[in-house]
């Protein structure tokens, strides 16, 4: 059965363009369109589409208010279209906090090399969000510029001594696999390992997941935390500021030469790569420009995990959360070779079970954890208190 899509935008040109792109896929059926937020609410409740694409700025009722009204009554995945500006970032984060599951920029050239690639990306994103019903309010996500591809190249480090490693995303589908059973909350026990850093990688669905985890940590959390969230450059600063205003620990957008300090979380800047360098007792972050067309994700979970493996070896607790694709799998493989601990979010609490599934399929996962348990288990595992 085709995925039924409702398009909401006040621009007739954009509505036509979107309909043409989506209609090129036999799996997608555009059932109607709306020209403002009020009409979107009415048609969403009457037609019950599988997915809604929603503009933010519209007359009568804006897109953020429309998302709130629709999700009060019906849990429909909503994909926002946004401008990649500072104001656009703030509005998009508000929409995601209201319950939208993902977003894409209105200028398709910002996410693709050509028209064909942009169309494929948009259709893929609509299919992905249709597979998962939103978890309710605040299912924020932002993998807008994180394009998936069949392979990319991990260069570690960027500059200096370079080692190329091919990342075949199809490897996540190799053969059959058995993953560890989800440990009941009452049965979880810490491993007793000594840790020096926590590293968290995520994509679609990541912002709400990160918010839930980070706001549950005490100000005295004993380790630095590095965060790799697929997000465009215009958004990471605003997202870090929002998290910092809500959490007890300090959260900042990472800057070049930041020294890693306990109780501080560092969010990788969008459009760049975040590397860990130095020694275990004096590690710092390097933020590198990356114009390589061979590296798909900027920031890349694989690249940051790989550099953390070199510096911290087995003293890393790495957590892979909800997201499309397989970014993080090869970095986790390098961490695992050094003896690090790898956790993956369970399917039931993911917005998109892609990145955690890739970890499980590769046999790299030590624990499968529900989102609501991550913070408490982190505290147990790092022996806080």
From TrEMBL:
Q: What CDD domains does this protein's entry cite?
A: CheB_Rec, REC_CheB-like
Q: How is it modified after translation?
A: Phosphorylated by CheA. Phosphorylation of the N-terminal regulatory domain activates the methylesterase activity.
| A molecular-function term among this protein's GO annotations | protein-glutamine glutaminase activity
Active site annotation, chain numbering: 203, 230, 327
Top EC class for this record? hydrolase
Which Gene Ontology BP terms does the record give?
A: chemotaxis
Q: Which reaction does it catalyse?
A: [protein]-L-glutamate 5-O-methyl ester + H2O = L-glutamyl-[protein] + methanol + H(+); L-glutaminyl-[protein] + H2O = L-glutamyl-[protein] + NH4(+)
Query: In this chain, where does the modification 4-aspartylphosphate occur?
Result: 55
User: Which SMART domains does this chain map to?
Assistant: REC (SM00448)
> What domain of life is recorded for the organism?
Bacteria
Q: Where in the cell is it found?
A: Cytoplasm
Which family would the database say this protein is a member of?
Answer: Belongs to the CheB family.
Q: What does this protein do?
A: Involved in chemotaxis. Part of a chemotaxis signal transduction system that modulates chemotaxis in response to various stimuli. Catalyzes the demethylation of specific methylglutamate residues introduced into the chemoreceptors (methyl-accepting chemotaxis proteins or MCP) by CheR. Also mediates the irreversible deamidation of specific glutamine residues to glutamic acid.
Protein name (record): Protein-glutamate methylesterase/protein-glutamine glutaminase
